[in-house]
Write a structure and sequence with these properties.
alpha+beta; 5-stranded antiparallel sheet; 16% helix; globular
């Protein structure tokens, strides 16, 4: 997993965004995991939850979700998302 990664659930509804916590990257290597979904018509994304995990935990979660059928997807919200 690089600086940012996105996974979408098997139903194509929920998305998880994994991204570095730049403030902690040197000392503790932590990752934010945001749960949400894109909204239609340019509305702001619906963000339901944020986790703050150690890098190793985030990598384990990424792999576990893929085993459950979650698949990589393009960015759904934020600056990396292009309309």
């Amino acid at each position: 997993m690089g600086g940012e990664g996105w996974l979408q659930d098997p139903d194509g509804y929920w998305v998880k965004r994994f991204h570095r916590d730049e403030a902690s990257w040197r000392g503790g290597s932590r990752v934010f995991v945001d749960d949400g979904r894109g909204m239609p018509n340019g509305e702001p994304a619906l963000l339901k939850r944020r986790q703050h995990l150690r890098r190793e935990q985030a990598e384990q979660l990424w792999k576990a979700l893929q085993r459950e059928g979650w698949r990589p997807t393009k960015p759904v919200w934020g600056p990396a998302c292009k309309p």
